[in-house]
Amino acid sequence: MNIKGIAKFAGIAALTAACVFGATACGSGEQVAATVNGQKILEQTITDNIQAYRTAYGMEDDATWGEYLNTYGYTPATIRESMIDSYVKTEIVKEQAKENGVTVDSSEVDAYVDQIKVYYEDDAAWQEALESAGITEQEYRESIETRLMEQALMDKVTPLTDPDDSEVLTYVSMYATYSYDGAKKSSQIVFASTDTDTAQSVLDQINAGTLSFEDAAKQYSTDTATKNDGGNIGWDCLVTVPSDAYTTALDALEAGQVSGLVEDTDDTTGSACIRIIKCTEVFTAPDEITDLSQVPTEMVDSVREMVKTYAQQDDFDTWLNEKQDEADVVINDMPSGLPYDVDMSAYENTANTTADVNTAVTDNTNTTEATNENANATATDNTNSNENTNAN
Fold it and tell me: What angle do CA 313, 315, 318 make, to 5 degrees?
């Protein structure tokens, strides 16, 4: 799957998560599932979200649903508890945001939604994705607002702190061996698809040694994001490589080598172009890493940020759980006749394939998750908050 395909898929996943785990009440009805400091969470809201989850993952029929629950150690009651818990946490986030003076401007929501919409060909495709996820754009926007609010609240009550170098070294050693070994750093010069003669002339000068790659990028490249840095796009393990053709060309290069003319289409913009690609460095992980200087600075910085973010999330989760313990939370008994309440005795003999119950439901109880996902997922997401949210 190419980069654009991954991003689009992540964007759809973020849309689904917005309905399934978002802060908006998708249903109606007066039966109350729980209250948080007197604020009602309707039973219909919980039911609608669980049913939307079933639909999103192709588990509408009871047999598939029952097998899924049994496989991951769930019951209809515990699924309900997980969904209620996600709404409880969301309500506490809203209350604490108000107490701490945390607000989200509509322009921030606009910017985030625009990041996701760029992965759809037009507004019709965007609306189709929303419809497939079972939500309206307004509901999605409200969900994003809550996620951004949570991130802002997190930054205020549990700000990022720099980890010790010793802690960073531990993670760098692990990533260097399993994720960074063999990584390539590269630069590019980009030309219009019709500018073949100029591209060939520049390539000939680079190969002859009469023009440096860096100077050629600054003088000729049409890519404004990289040209002033000599065409540098960074390490392929840390950045989004422009296209599949770029990856193929880079794979064939050793450190210091320059490609021929690469006819390409940018997966992000869809524009045809010509590239000249240079592999500037190749990282080979040492057998033992005892000092951060043994690893490229960009990789160390990336790991450092990851450690900071994880630590902040852990601190915030602890803080939020304490606030939840202090809150007046009342969870009412599960009523009979709910559409997701299947008889689990029919599936008790199905072998559990895993003891891990951190499925998509519990993974998404924290409303920040979609922001990371996106962005990278972009969106999602992020919606990580790096779809990443990404939804990229």
Answer: 105
Give which of 204, 228, 197, 202 is closest to 216, Cα–Cα. 202
Look at residues 310, 273, 281 and name the one whose alpha carbon lies nearest to residue 154: 310
On whether the CB atoms of residues 160 and 312 are closer than 8 A, the answer is yes
Half-sphere exposure for 110 (CA within 13 Å, toward CB):
3
Q: Of 171, 170, 176, 167, give the one whose Cα is nearest residue 287.
A: 176
The per-residue pLDDT for range 114-166, each reduced to its tens digit, is: 988 888 888 999 999 888 777 889 989 998 999 999 999 999 999 999 999 99
Q: Strand pairing of 39-42 and 184-192?
A: unpaired
- pLDDT single digits (tens) 54-87: 988 899 999 999 999 999 999 999 999 999 999 9
Query: What whole-number distance in Å separates Cα of residue 214 and Cα of residue 82?
Result: 54
For 228-268, write each residue's pLDDT tens digit: 999 999 999 999 999 999 999 999 999 999 999 999 987 66
- Give the dihedral of Cα atoms 260, 261, 262, 264; nearest 10 deg: 170
pLDDT tens-digit map of 288-298:
999 999 999 99
Rounded to whole angstroms, the Cα distance separating 76 from 345 reads 12
Compute the distance between CA of residue 272 and CA of residue 269 in angstroms, rounded to an integer.
Answer: 9
Q: What 3 state SS string does the chain have?
A: CCHHHHHHHHHHHHHHHHHHHCCCCCCCCCCEEEEECCEEEEHHHHHHHHHHHHHHCCCCCHHHHHHHHHHCCCCHHHHHHHHHHHHHHHHHHHHHHHHCCCCCCHHHHHHHHHHHHCCCCCHHHHHHHHHHHCCCHHHHHHHHHHHHHHHHHHHHHCCCCCCCHHHHHHHHHHHHHHHHCCCEEEEEEEEECCCHHHHHHHHHHHHHCCCCHHHHHHHHCCCCCCHHHCCEEEECCCCCCCCHHHHHHHHCCCCCCECCCEEEECCCCCCEEEEEEEEEEECCCCCCCCCHHHCCHHHHHHHHHHHHHHHHHHHHHHHHHHHHHHCCEEECCCCCCCCCCCCHHHHCCCCCCCCCCCCHHHHCCCCCCCCCEECCCEEEEECCCCCCCEEC
* Bridge partners of residue 342, in order along the sequence: none
